[in-house]
Amino acid sequence: MKIEDELTLSFYKEISKLDEKRDIWLVQHVENKEIFVRKILKVYDREVYTYMKEKRFPYTPEIIEMIEDGENLILIEEYVQGKSLDVILGEGVFSPEDAKATILKICEILKPLHTHVPAIVHRDIKPGNIIVKDSQIYLIDFDASRDYEPDKNKDTVLMGTREYAAPEQFGFSQSTPRTDIYALGVLMNVMITGKFPADELAKGKARKIIKKCTAVDPKDRYACVEDLENAIKGNPSSYAPPGFRARNPLFMILGAFGYIAIFSISLTLDITKSDGTPAGTVETIVSRFAILIIFLGLTLYWGNYRFFFEKFPFKKMKMLPLEILRIAMGTALIAFLPILVLALLFP
After folding, report:
1. 138: which strand partners?
2. Using DSSP, how many helices (H) and how many strands (E) does the chain show?
């Protein structure tokens, strides 16, 4: 450690230990007397804390100092004084309405984290990491957090609390923003019933939301916290097309290029008759429009636009062979109906 770093740390006097196992202390600045939290992390994603220090995400602890000491990272961060959700749950469960209101507030905190490039995934959302201060929710303890890297197949380090951890956190695949959505589903269930979904599932409208949040396959969960918000509020889904729902700038750019390519290819194709001669003006226009409908229809279907994928041609099936058949039927109907119409119009 550099001498200047040692000097910086010397300004923070230890007051009491907050966590024996994880070496977390409550410290006080010797000059301004402000209270902070000091952590020594052995496993961490430095980039996450770098982003948080530079960007200052709302309702998360402000990073004051960040010093590397060999393989460890020493953090001095804002002390959020309030009552943890863990303590509040010890006093009794929430009504479904209050639980949903709390989840909506957490979604608002996660939005700028998940839409950051690269996306920041918390990976340890649980009652102990949620602080209620003056009716406002704060999300703390980003020690398990990491960047989402599209080229990686799975997490290199397994972190998070077992009961709230999504299946992918156990090494099956990489954590994504949908990993946090899984934890939100578990949290909502615990807030309403006092139990985990595996033990007792909440009833009423919350039941369907929780089941979707905690789906084993991340693709079956809500695509982003905005979709979860819409479900809680009673809105079917975001009206934004696939590629734009998560409000991720990179995905939006790629999506824009994709839609431009679809329109360009569909509306400039040379259309010929069965004998190889060029089609007439009307037939060309109608054919190009039909091709555009096919491409857009398949994009919206596979992108689950407003839950289109889950409902067409009928609701999702529990048995895998039947589900594969349902998807194949949906794809075939979208692809071949416009072709059938063309065949009838221009035999």
Report:
1. 131
2. 11, 10
Residue 95 forms part of a structural domain: yes
pLDDT, tens only, 71-120? 999 999 999 999 999 999 999 999 999 999 999 999 999 999 999 988 99
Q: Give the separation between CA 232 and CA 205, rounded to whole angstroms.
A: 9
Number of domains within the chain: 3
Catalytic residue set: 124
Distances from the Cα of 3 to the Cαs of 6, 40, 62, 290, in angstroms? 5, 18, 24, 70
Tens digit of each residue's pLDDT (9 = 90 or more) over 239-261 = 788 888 766 788 889 999 999 99
User: Could you tell me the pTM of the whole model?
Assistant: 0.72
Name which of 51, 181, 186, 80 is nearest 123 in CA terms.
Answer: 181
Does one domain contain both 199 and 279?
Answer: no
| Amino acid making up residue 287 | S
Q: Report phi then psi at 138, rounded to 5.
A: -125, 140
Residue 173 parent element (H or E): none
Host domain of residue 337: 249-345
Return d(Cα 342, Cα 290) in angstroms, integer.
8
Beta bridge partners of 83: 132
Whole-angstrom distance, CA of residue 55 vs CA of residue 49: 10
